[in-house]
Amino acid sequence: MFTREILLENGIPVLEMKKKDVLFREDQRASHLFYLLEGEVKIYNIDSEGKEFLINKVLENQFLGEPPFLLGERYPANAMIASETAEVFSFTTAHFREFMAAHPDLLFDFTKEIAKKAYEKTMRLKSIVHQCPHERIINFLKIYKKGLGMEPHEKTIINVTRKEMANSTGLAIETVIRTVKKMEREEKIKLINHKIYY
Question: What is the distance between the alpha carbons of residues 87 and 18, in angstroms, rounded to a whole number?
C-alpha cells in the first residue's frame, strides 16, 4: 500500500527488527501505529496457563494495531517479529495526522484496509460459531489466500502449522489433524511435505 520512499520522505521513523523482537504487548497503551513494509509478524495472546493463542500472521505491506491506536485504547494482543528480519514504520498520532492530511488518497486506502480486516474478522467469527471443522478449515484457507492477494481458484502452499490453524479456527489440534487428513482423502486439499496445498 505505502512505499518506502513516501514514508521516508514524510519523516516516518523506521524500525529495523529481527526475529522474536516484540513490537507491542497486550494491555500496553497504543501510542503508535505500525506499518510492516517487509517481514512477518505474529499477533497472539497468552492465556492464564501460559498457552499461546495465535490470532493472525501479518504479512508485508499491512498495518498493525489500528483500532487501539485510533481509539486511544490498549493493544488487545502481543505482536512479535516472526521472520528473520523486518522493516516496520512507526507512526505517532502527530505523524499519522500530518501524513494522512498530506495524502488523502492514502487515507482512503487505509480506511479500506480497516474495513477489509473488520469484514475478515466477522467471517472468521461466523465460521467459528456456525460451521463444522471442515468448513472452518476451508474458510481459514480462503481467508489466508485472500490475505496473500490471491484469487479463490489459485492454489498455493499454506505456510501455517496445524497448531496455528487450530488456534485461528478455535478447534483442537487433534481435530485439525483429523479433518485435514479426511479432506486430503476426499481430494479437497493436497498435502505436500506435510504442508497444505490449496
Answer: 9
Question: What is the spatial distance between Cα 156 and Cα 80, in angstroms, rounded to a whole number?
Answer: 25
Q: Under a CB-based contact definition with an 8 Å cutoff, are residues 89 and 35 in contact?
A: yes
For residues 196 and 161, give the distance between their C-alpha atoms in angstroms, rounded to a whole number: 9
Residue with cell 505523524: 95
Please report the sign of the dihedral spanned by the C-alpha atoms of residue 137, residue 138, residue 142, residue 148: positive
pTM: 0.71
- Mapping DSSP onto H, E and C, the string for 127-196 reads HHHHCCHHHHHHHHHHHHHHHCCCCCCCCCEECCCHHHHHHHHCCCHHHHHHHHHHHHHCCCCEEECCEE
**Beta bridge mates, 192:** 195
CB 95 within 8 A of CB 70: no
7-23, pLDDT tens digit by residue?
A: 999 999 999 999 999 99
- Return the C-alpha cell found at 88: 516496520
Angle (CA) 10 16 22, round 5°: 115
Amino acid at residue number 198: Y
